[in-house]
Structure formats: structure tokens, C-alpha cells
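Hello support,

Our group uses your service weekly, and this is the first time we've seen a run hang past the timeout. The protein is T-cell immunomodulatory protein TIP C2 domain-containing protein. I'm not sure whether the cause is the sequence or the server load. Input pasted verbatim:
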Amino acid sequence: MIWTLKLITLAFLLLLGGQYNTFALQDVTADLFGPGNYGTVAAFGDFNSDKQTDIFTIKEQTDLVIFLADSKPPYFKPKVQAKNILGKNITSVVPGDYDGDSQMDVLLTAKNGQETEVFIFWGHNQTLGTALIVIYLQMLPCRHRKKPYPGQVANGDGYQDHLLPACLDKSCQRSTIYLAKSGSRDSKWIPVLSDFKRKETVWGFVPDNSSQPPALHLGDYNLDGFPDALVVLQNKSGSGQQAFLLENVPCNSDTCHSVGRMFHIHWDQSDLGAIQNAVRATFFDIYEDGILDMLVQSKAEGKQDLRIHALKNNFEADAYFVKVMGKGLICQPFGVNQPGPYVKYTTVDSNGYLKNASAGQLSQSAYFSLQLPYTVLGLGRSANFLDHLFVGIPRQPGETEIRNKEWTAIIPNSQLIVMPFPHDTPRSWSAKLYLTPSNSVLLTAIALIGVCVFILVIIGILHWQEKKADDREKRQEAHRFHFDAM
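Update from on-call engineer: The timeout came from a worker crash unrelated to the input. Re-ran successfully.
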């Protein structure tokens, strides 16, 4: 009886507590990689076409190792390995289907003096076949320019914005992040984060080098509909480097008033802060549940390879998402993850206001951009159906007709796999919808089971008491009959 009441109380407390956001990270590196958590994460893609995202890594600068997703620990196993595949150092990995056979190939680049060699290894039955040398590229002098990131919607107006991480001096003592608002006639860059000072310590971007310029990796970690970012910063008072989470919050400064949003640095993330000498950090949906986790790479003492850290996002809130993956080829409806799809949705939030968001898929693949082969769009605390979901792909040069298709009444917490085939006939495109139950469903089921058990216990107690009363009455009747007979 007591434990039943405790169970019901706990279930209702969890159900009520789910209304408030909680965010914590959990180190799950051992569960994912076991002892083999070394190497440089270079790209993501579904190599074996099982709808699970695999991880492409470079080991010892010359070996290509593909960690395939598995249902048993360790959840990523190095099942495809090619040692010294080029006979020289690998500088970039670009998964894709380059021959139209619905199997993922791998494009590799290697530096040969001032030239860059490009190789393509043909995928065949989850293995890598022979290589084809495509082209030699001449390396041009660096102009020290930072490339804008055409990421997700930064201010929630439904249009793509450009983010630019920049250093205002050579040592990056003064760092900032600019945003170019889409649709504006002037090309003014608006600072959305310029305060990199924590108490008396100054942080900033790692000074630019040929291997890894300052980079932002975007993802909606709290599913509020606004993209957040992961970035590696350097302690300018010392020499340490750490990964930090930049949360997209409402603007509280005059400099970003025109866009309405800004980034806020989470300085007190102990799990991220425990990873010293961080080099690269990105979002990754480890468990394919629509919640973005984190992969952080750091320098390991005495090792040439980077160490891989996997952090699970234990985010619990009454928030929803939609996950969209674009697949397809020119000649076949099924295939590998397609670069370039554009996703946009419109819905109504819990207050009745119109809400828009959009994002692109795989706008860049090479040189450790670490973009995900799918798009996760947060819906906030609105459990309404998506009124309109648009998916489009790039059109051929010279075409004027837009290639996109609209789907209506999409269920929240679902994954939509879109096959845009044929490319020039959007009305023939198809989609597969997969549902991901919310935590509220589990909590509701626990509460319902607890109530049923509680009712059954009460019924059992009442039945037992009634049976005892019947037995007592029968004994009294038998006793009374005995004395009457005498």
C-alpha cells in the first residue's frame, strides 16, 4: 500500500516536473566507442543504409575508419577500416554517392606539396572498393577570411541568416560573432556575441591556422526553435582550450536589438569544462531520438590521434521537434543522404501566434564541417500539428521553377524521410513518417498503471474485509443454530 502511494506520487511529480527545462550532460563515451575512442571525426553519413548515422574518422592521419551504428554496446563499432588507404596524409573526407548506384562512396583529399589530390573510393556492399584519382587542385594563398555559416534561422523569422565568427586582432584577444539578417537591403553585420570575458579571464577564438579556422557548429539542443552553437574557445590568460555551449536567447543589448536574439555562453557546464585541450565540438543525435547530443574532440597527451568524447544530452522538458532527412538520387528514389535540401515549417504556438523556422541539410561536407545528414527543428512547448512543412532541393542552372513540395498536418516528435524523386517532378515525391514517443507518454503510462494498481489494492482490501465479515457471520449463525438445537 505504501509503496504504491509512493509510486503514484513520484509519477505525478515527474509529470509536473517535466514542464520545466532541465539540462545536464552525461559522459557515454565508453558505451559508444569502448576503448577505441581515438581518431579525428571527419564526417557523418549512413554508410550501410540502415537509417542510422555512421561516423567517419581518420586515424594516424593515413587510415580511414568508419564506425557503424549498432544496437548493442559499444553502439559504434569500427567495422570498415582502410589502413594507409592513400599512402599519404588524409586532409578531408566527403561521403556521398558519386556513381548513382544507391551505395555510399567516399571522397578523400590528400595534400601533395602545393597541390591537393582528390580520390573517390567506390562503395560496394558496405565495403570500399578501388579508388579513382579525380583531379589535382592548386593551393591558393590564404587571404585570412572567415567564411559565413548559412545555418538555421537565428532569430525565428523563417529566413536563413548568416553567422560569421571573427577575430578583431591576430591573437583573437577580441573575438565576436556577427549576423547578417536575411532580406535586409544593407549588408550590415550585427554583433550577436562580443562579450567573451568570464570574471577576470578573457576567452576568445583559437587563432586561425591552416588546419582549423574558427568554427560554429549549430544545433537546437533545447528544442525551443532557435539554433544554439558549440564552439571551442581559448583562455587568453593561459593556454587552455575548452568547448562551450552558446545558447540562443532573447537580446538584452542595444547592439542586437534589430535582430532580437543573441548568444549566451554557458560558462558553468562542468561536463564540457572537464574536457581539457578541446579541438573541435559538434552536435550529433547519438540515440536517434531527436535530441541533439555532443561529440567533443581533444588532444591526448602522448598520442597523435585526437580523443573522442561523447556527451548525452539529458534534456527533459515539455518540448517537441520534427526531424527531416532528405534522400534520393537523380535516377533512383532511394539512396544516400542528399546535400542541399531546404526544410521550412509553419505552425501555431501555444499562445496562438504563427511560428516559422527553416534549415538546410549538408550545405558543406568537406574539411571537418561536421554537418549532420539530417535536420532537427525544435517546436518549443507547442504540441500542435505542423500546419505546413516544405522540403525543397536545389534546381538546375537556368531553371526558374522552384523544386519543393508541401506536407500538411505533420505529427510532432516524428522523423520524416523524404525521397525527392524525380527531382523535376515535386508532386511525385514521397515521404516516410516515423514517430518518436515523447517522455510525457511514458510518464502518463506510469501514472495510469499506478492508479490502476492503487484501485486494485483497494478492491482487494475491501474484498478481504468483506470475506472476513462473511466468515464471522457464518460462524455466528452456526453457533446460534447449535444452541437452539439443544
